[in-house]
Give the backbone structure.
Amino acid sequence: MATNRYSAFAPIGLKFHNNQPQIVIRNLTDAARVLIQDWPLDDGEDYVIAVKACADALIGEISAEEFRQTLLSAATEAGISALSLVYDLALRDEPDEPRRSSQGQ
């Protein structure tokens, strides 16, 4: 079974409500890393759904865009500000690391 680790979707900017920098999520690998390492709430119903959806998207059972919707719901549940960003095709080949910004803190 092929994995879709770098399947891109319309980017989402996340602003956590602490001193953590803003994060831009562009693909499934970014999302998985943020959900596991940075998420402030790990027992919410929408969080659990998003983690499962991310795993499903990684193995190709659902699309990256379908997963994106679950991520937005989990962000709302956790009180994380989420912004849909303009998708720039030139950024598709960016490194695996989620982009973090120190602006707007």
Observations:
- The mean pLDDT is 82.
- Residues 13-86 form one domain.
- Residues 50 and 84 are 17 Å apart (CA to CA).
